[in-house]
Amino acid sequence: MMIGACRKEARRAKMAPVEVLGVVDPGYFVRHRPRRKDLTISLESQKTEQAPWTDSIREKIDNLHPASPFQRIDALDTGAPISVVRGLSQFVEREAGRGPTVSNHLVQELLTVRNLCCPRVRHLKSGEMPFLATSVNAHLSEEVATRFRKLKPVILTVWSEEELKQCSWDDPLSDEQMARRIVRVCFEAYRQGGLLSLMDLQWIFHISVRKISELIRRAQKECTIIVPTPGTILDSGRSMTHKDIVIELHLQGYTAREIARITYHSPRAVDNYIGTFESVLILDLYHIPKRLMARILRKGISLIEEHLHLARKHFRDEEDMKRLLECKEVRF
Question: Is residue 198 part of a domain?
Answer without folding.
Answer: yes
